[in-house]
Design brief:
- α1 links the parallel β6 and β7.
- The protein has 4 helices and 8 strands.
- The chain has 2 domains: 128 residues, no CATH class; 39 residues, no CATH class.
- The protein starts with 6 loop residues before the first strand and ends with a helix.
- By secondary structure, it is an alpha+beta fold.
- Strands 2, 3, 4, 5, 6 and 7 form a 6-stranded mixed beta sheet that branches. Strands 1-8 form a two-stranded antiparallel ribbon.
- The chain binds zinc ion (2 copies).
- The site of one zinc ion has 6 residues, from loops.
Length: 181
C-alpha cells in the first residue's frame, strides 16, 4: 500500500458522489509527533463529491493511537474517532478575494490542489492530530509527576511531601549545600 491510495483524480470523482470505505496503513499519514503514534490502520468511511472543479470530502476517521499523558508522561492507547472534512479547490482560485473565500469556507477547511489530483493524506492527518486536545490524560485523576523528585505519583507516593515540613534552620543549610554543588 502506498500513498497513491489516498490520491484521487479530479475527473474520476463523480458529481453525484462516491462512497469512500477504506482501511489505510497508518504509516502513510506521516504522523511523526513524538507524543502520538498510530498503532492501527486508519479506517475511512465517507464520501467524495465533485462540484465542477471542486472536490468535497467528508469522512469518519477511526483508528487507535499510542499517546503520551500530559501529566505523568506515561504512554497509553486511545481510540481515535473524528471527522475529516475539506473542500479542495484548484490553486488558480486561491487569488480570489479573501471575503469570498470566507463566505464559502464556513466550518470547512479549504485546500488548494495543483494539477489534476488531490490527496486526502494531510486532511486526515490533521483531523487525527486535532482530535487530541492539548491536555491528553491517561485518566481523569492522573496524579502526574512529583515536581521535586519526578516520581510517577500514580505508581506510588513519594516522600517529598513528608520532607516539606522542614525546620527553617535546616532549610538554610540545604540551600547552602545546593550552592556548593
Ligand atoms: Zn497520566
Ligand atoms: Zn517527590
Amino acid at each position: 500500500m502506498d500513498r497513491q491510495c489516498l490520491v484521487f483524480e479530479i475527473d474520476r470523482v463523480p458529481e453525484n458522489g462516491m462512497v469512500l470505505d477504506r482501511v489505510i496503513d497508518g504509516g502513510l499519514f506521516d504522523i511523526e509527533d513524538e507524543d502520538i503514534t498510530l498503532n492501527q490502520d486508519v479506517e475511512l468511511k465517507g464520501e467524495l463529491k465533485r462540484v465542477r472543479r471542486d472536490i468535497l470530502f467528508y469522512a469518519r476517521v477511526g483508528t487507535e493511537a499510542t499517546v503520551r499523558c500530559s501529566r505523568c508522561l506515561g504512554t497509553f492507547s486511545q481510540n481515535v474517532k473524528c471527522d475529516a472534512k475539506a473542500q479542495f479547490k484548484p490553486k488558480e482560485e486561491a487569488i480570489q478575494s479573501e471575503a469570498e473565500i470566507e463566505l464559502r469556507a464556513e466550518d470547512c477547511e479549504i485546500e488548494y490542489y495543483e494539477g489534476e489530483t488531490i490527496s486526502l493524506a494531510e486532511v486526515v492527518r490533521d483531523a487525527i492530530l486535532l482530535s487530541f486536545t492539548t491536555m491528553v490524560l491517561c485518566k481523569d485523576d492522573c496524579q502526574g509527576l512529583c515536581s521535586q523528585c519526578g516520581a510517577n505519583l500514580n505508581l506510588a507516593p513519594c516522600t517529598c511531601s513528608l520532607d516539606e515540613v522542614v525546620d527553617p534552620r535546616f532549610e538554610k543549610l540545604r540551600l547552602l549545600k545546593e550552592k556548593l554543588k
